[in-house]
Amino acid sequence: MAPSSRPAPLPSTDPGPEAPPGGASGGGGPADSSGARRGKRRRRAVIAAVVVVTVLAAAVAALLVLGPPAVRRHIIAEARARGVALDPGAIDLGLGAVRLRGARFSLVGVRGLSGTVARATIELRGLSPARIAADGVELTLAGIDALEGLPAWAAQHGRRAAALPLTTSRFRIGFRDRDGGPEVFALADGSLQGRAAGATPGAAAPLPGAMLPEAGVLKQARVLWAGKEIARTDVAWSINGDAIALGFGGEDALTAPLRAELRPRPAPSAAIALAPTPLSAVGALLGVDVGASKMVVSGTLELRLAEGADRTALSEAPLEGPIALTVKGFTLPHPKELDGLLFGDTTTVKADARISADRQRVALGGVEVAAGALKLGGTGTIQRDGADATIGMDLSGSIPCSLLAGSAAMSHLTGAVGLLARDLVSRTLAGTVAVRARVDARASRLTAARVTPSAILRCKLRL
């Protein structure tokens, strides 16, 4: 068959219906709708992220431009609510924290107390302070007046102030007799740690419902007296509505070996107590050379305003009160003939102390020194000499001749012969021996104290 002469049709240029993705031959299915939803979610997430970043950027910009004055006012108000009048110094803002540089502060209602802070970091919880870490804190107390307002401040503000955790490094507190005067006493370079009173082992538990005192410890502080370092030890403190307590050599003010309690009302007074403590430990605490002594000392000192002193000028008022000291393992130097009188190993000292208004001199009246059967009385003085002090006492007493002769007989004769000799001289001797002793010492070298005795015989035979 012959081929046809009609031309073949040209291919169509119409693409026709577009094939669905994946080669599907029908309309939109489930895969098509889920893909669209995913696309919408992605677009919404991107838009939300952009909005959040924009808002944060605007907030940060507003905080950097407008925030510091508002932050400063807020910091001052938060401190004031806790009883602290604060000048924040320079403020650096950060995420979740505010940093202060060169801050100054005082306690509301407490005269003569002020302080500075080199650096402090205040961690925030929202807009409220959650924790404070400070470095380079210096506190100054001028005059005893500075201590009078602390118990009242603690009663009003202490609970809320203590609720804010605080840690410090390089803490220093200095005390001056009066504003502008030289520094008398200081605790330096310690690390301040706050804690609930009674939280240390051995401390007495507070009574149910009682107000907990504010308490803490200054760890390994340098103890300075008149600018000279005399010790490095833990110094505990506790403040309640009635008193301020300090404890040297322990982590609790109520159980430390050396304790001081200051009571400003109704009349200013102080009580200092030394628990029975090896003299070597006391010497190390106070920077006094006592050698290898095995003596154990304890004592108390109570101070109050001297009669007629002006209560409104405590830093310039003379103080007075009784002092009592017990030294176990020590008796006055004496010849062996007095062994029968100076029996035992304990010496006690009692006196009435009066501290001058300038705190340079302590006059001792009504001094009583007892060792065994020997009892001496007299007067004395303690004169401050920078970080040291000189001690002088004039003592006198009388010993019955019968006792003295009996002691001498027993020191040279033993057994029945000694007893017979003692009884004999006791019956045949009358009168007394007047004994005097001059004591001179320095506080920094107590073991080198010089005792100068003398005696006047007034003995006679019994007829």
Structure, described:
This protein is an alpha+beta fold. The protein has a domain at 54-197 and 213-260. Helix content is 22%, strand content 45%. Strand 15 and strand 16 (361-371) form a beta hairpin. The longest helix has 52 residues, at 30-81.
Annotation field: number of helices: 6
How many E strands? 20
The value of Rg in angstroms is 41 Å
Helices and strands, in order, run as HEEEEEHHEEEEEEEHEEEEEEHHEE
Which spans have pLDDT < 50 for at least 5 consecutive residues? 1-27, 196-212
Q: Average pLDDT, to the nearest integer?
A: 77
Strand content: over 45%
Which of globular, elongated, flat, extended, rod-shaped describes the shape? elongated
Largest sheet: 20 strands, mixed
User: What is the subunit organization of this protein?
Assistant: single chain
Give the N-terminus to C-terminus distance in angstroms.
Answer: 190 Å
The level of helicity is: 10-25%
Judged by helices, strands and strand pairing, the structural class is alpha+beta
In short:
By secondary structure, the protein is an alpha+beta fold. The protein is about 20% helix and about 45% strand.
Features:
22% helix, disordered N terminus, 463 residues, 20-stranded mixed beta sheet, alpha+beta
